[in-house]
Specification:
Elements (H helix, E strand, L loop, with lengths): L1 H21 L28 H13 L5 E4 L5 E4 L3 E5 L2 E10 L9 E10 L2 E13 L9 E4 L7 E10 L2 E12 L2 E4 L3 E6 L19 E10 L3 E8 L3 E8 L2 E4 L9
Antiparallel strand pairs: 1-2, 2-4, 3-4, 4-5, 5-6, 7-8, 8-9, 9-10, 9-11, 11-12, 12-13, 13-14, 14-15
């Protein structure tokens, strides 16, 4: 019995050893998973610089000075511009430099100077300049502008401006799309009209016999890259529509009721 017990236990032990030998782990060979390449390539050249340095270098390349410069084009007068923002449209850098007009006359407006540049090693090369394409209201003031992607597939500069004289006033907006080949400005979008300052309190009409006109428009129903509407309220209510054709927004009406 004792011998038989030992033989049975020995067989069990041998079986266990066989099982253990079959469960031996393979020696570790390290991580065999291939590294996943980064989705965003590491910037090189001028794009590797901090944004503030890119802006400074772009302005210096465009105007030959740091901090401030003067631009002049057509009848716009002298505009004193300063660097404000650098955008990248694909591989093109767009420099935006707002400035006040050196003259503060009624018809003198400030401007937002636009320059296009391409990377050139650790620097830039200017490919195009539009010093006074985007203008403000008058009195020499800097335009009130913002960059938006509400209207177009690429960023656009949106500026509202207006004018007033002899009791009449009107206002509108410009939309300038920053396309890779250069900025394209849509036709003016009219947003307000009034003759209130020319209306006689006694007669309720202007000297020319016009009744009071006081209209305010609001851009609505924006379909990006296709269309939008201007909803007018005040002494009259109506809608004017604009459509994107041949690379810019154009009005469907022959003449806006909100224009000067």
């Amino acid at each position: 019995m004792k011998l038989g017990f030992l033989n049975h236990g020995g067989a069990a032990l041998a079986g266990a050893l066989v099982l253990l030998s079959g469960c031996q782990q393979a020696p570790e060979t390290g991580n065999t998973t291939a590294p996943v390449p980064s989705a965003t390539p590491t910037p090189t050249g001028v794009r590797a610089l901090p944004e503030t340095e890119q802006l400074k270098l772009a302005f210096r390349t465009t105007y030959g000075k740091d901090g401030a410069a003067q631009v002049q084009e057509d009848d716009a007068g002298v505009i004193n511009v300063k660097p404000r923002q650098l955008l990248w449209i694909g591989d093109t850098a767009v420099l935006l430099s707002p400035g006040a007009n050196e003259s503060d006359c009624h018809a003198c407006s400030g401007a937002l100077a636009i320059a296009y540049l391409k990377p050139q090693g650790d620097g830039f090369e200017v490919t195009g300049k539009w010093p006074t394409l985007v203008r403000g209201s008058g009195w020499g003031a800097v335009p009130e502008w913002r960059v938006t992607e509400e209207f177009t597939d690429r960023p656009a500069i949106y500026v509202e401006s207006g004018d007033a004289a002899q009791g009449y006033s009107c206002g509108g907006a410009s939309i300038t799309e920053l396309k890779p080949e250069g900025p394209v400005q849509s036709e003016r979008v009219w947003l307000s009209s009034s003759n209130e300052g020319a209306v006689d309190d006694t007669t309720g009409k202007t000297f020319g016999g016009e009744p009071l006109i006081r209209l305010e428009g609001k851009i609505t129903d924006i379909v990006k890259g296709k269309s939008f509407a201007v909803q007018a309220t005040g002494t009259a209510k109506f809608v004017e529509r604009y459509e994107y054709r041949d690379g810019k927004f154009v009005p469907l009406e022959k003449e806006s009721r909100l224009s000067c």
